Amino acid sequence: MSDEDKPVSLDLTSFELEQLLGLFIGILSEKAWQYMGLRLTPGKSEVVKDMVKARQAIDCVSHLTDVLALSVPAEALSRLRSGLADLQLNFVSQS
């Protein structure tokens, strides 16, 4: 197995808390889009809509955004809140 074929290992424990929360927000946001049926889940051939899970993911994004509000610059917070608003608006339109 060449170096190019080896899986990449990432030590998440080396990340700062703000970096981890930002990463989790990104992952949860992507899952929310997938659960709303607006993005295809990798490895799937069709969308699967689950609005209960979409709402849970969006609620988690909202909470983590509130937690980060105390420690990120205003510009970053504005981007986070804008992304959250996009999720919430799309959730309403898909419900």
Q: What is the rounded distance between the termini?
A: 48 Å
- The outline comes out as flat
Number of helices: 3
Q: What is the residue-averaged pLDDT?
A: 91
Tally of domains: 1
Total E-strand runs: 0
Oligomeric status of the shown chains? Answer: single chain
Give the H and E element order.
HHH
Strand residues, percent: under 5%
**Fraction of helical residues:** 55-70%
Rg measurement, Å: 16 Å
Main beta-sheet annotation: none
Structural class assignment:
mainly alpha
- The low-confidence runs, each spanning 5 or more residues with pLDDT under 50, are none
In short:
The chain is an all-alpha fold and 95 residues long.
Structure description:
- The structure is a single chain.
- The chain has 95 residues and is an all-alpha fold.
- The chain has helices spanning 17-35, 51-68, 74-94.
- α1 (17-35) packs antiparallel against α2 and α2 (51-68) packs antiparallel against α3 (74-94).
Structure characteristics:
95 residues; single chain; mainly alpha; 3 helices
Produce the secondary structure layout.
Blueprint (H helix, E strand, L loop, with lengths): L16 H19 L15 H18 L5 H21 L1
Helix pairs in contact: 1-2, 2-3
